[in-house]
Design goal:
By secondary structure, this protein is α+β, with helices and mostly antiparallel strands. The chain is built from four helices and 16 strands. The protein has one domain: Sandwich (Immunoglobulin-like), CATH 2.60.40.10. The strands form four sheets. Strands 5, 6, 7, 12, 13, 14, 15 and 16 form an eight-stranded mixed beta sheet that branches. A four-stranded mixed beta sheet has the order 2-1-3-4, sandwiched between helices. The protein has a two-stranded antiparallel ribbon with strand order 8-11. The longest helix is centred in the N-terminal third of the chain and has 15 residues.
């Protein structure tokens, strides 16, 4: 009887030591990421039609909410760098971007960086981009602590391997500054939103790779200009490559 019990125990132990292929853990692919669309609006304070582009953006934001991120990039021939009387919003970065893409008029936009799009076609292009899945999730947080902005970007891969660049930008809302209007008048009380103030991690960002099922965290710091209203600052992060913008995220600056 003892030998029978011993044989049974040995049989059970042996059986537990082997798991057949059909009984092994099965890999579960991450849920598809919700697409967030980046719209880069190349605008200028001396551009009479640029307020029309802003109206389109406002309509898109009402329709799609946080699923669309707009960035007003001031520069180009109709950008205004400012003078002793009026504040200018054009930046060296804005001029560099405008010249890089080789634009010849304003307003004009990039929707997920799939070629130049006239503002009259932004709505259709945004709808098309929103219908596509994204290969990763992005989250960005920004904290102002003793005059320094601490930024954390968290990425989670959801489909394949993504290789490209991670770009982080600092934006400001609620800037009251000069703007030429479609009727030719100069509006000194015009409110500019989502204005690109500065790139945080270089003009074209930094190398970035993430694989499906993996998580990556990037820490950055930035010293804001004292003239900027920190209560109106936000941070945008996006990953792009030769196939366009793969995913984007935006969050307001939290003041410690």
């Amino acid at each position: 009887m003892k030998n029978k019990y011993l044989s049974l125990i040995l049989l059970l132990l042996t059986a537990c030591s082997y798991i057949g292929e059909e009984e092994r853990l099965i890999y579960v692919k991450p849920e598809p990421a919700e697409r967030i669309v980046l719209l880069e609006d190349f605008t200028g304070q001396r551009c009479v039609n640029c307020p029309k582009g802003t109206e389109v953006i406002e309509q898109l934001q009402q329709e799609y909410g946080e699923n669309i991120i707009a960035v007003g990039i001031h520069g180009g021939p109709l950008g205004f760098a400012g003078n002793a009387r009026y504040e200018g919003l054009a930046t060296d970065a804005g001029n560099e971007y405008f010249n890089h893409w080789g634009f010849d008029y304003q307003p004009i936009g990039l929707v997920n960086r799939h070629g130049a799009v006239n503002y009259t076609d932004w709505a259709a292009t945004v709808r098309e981009e929103l219908s596509k899945p994204a290969p990763l999730n992005l989250d960005v947080e920004a904290l102002l602590n003793e005059g320094q902005i601490d930024i954390t970007v968290t990425a989670n891969g959801t489909d394949g391997v993504v290789e490209g660049k991670l770009q982080v930008w600092l934006l400001e809302d609620g800037i009251t500054a000069l703007q030429l209007m479609p009727d030719g008048t100069a509006n000194t009380g015009y409110v500019h939103n989502h204005v690109l103030r500065a790139p945080v991690n270089g003009l074209w960002g930094e190398d970035f790779t993430i694989a499906e099922g993996k998580q990556k965290t990037i820490q950055l710091t930035f010293q804001p200009n004292a003239a900027w209203n920190t209560q109106h600052l936000s941070v945008v992060a996006f990953v792009y490559n030769n196939n366009g913008v793969q995913q984007a995220a935006k969050n307001n600056l939290v003041i410690n």
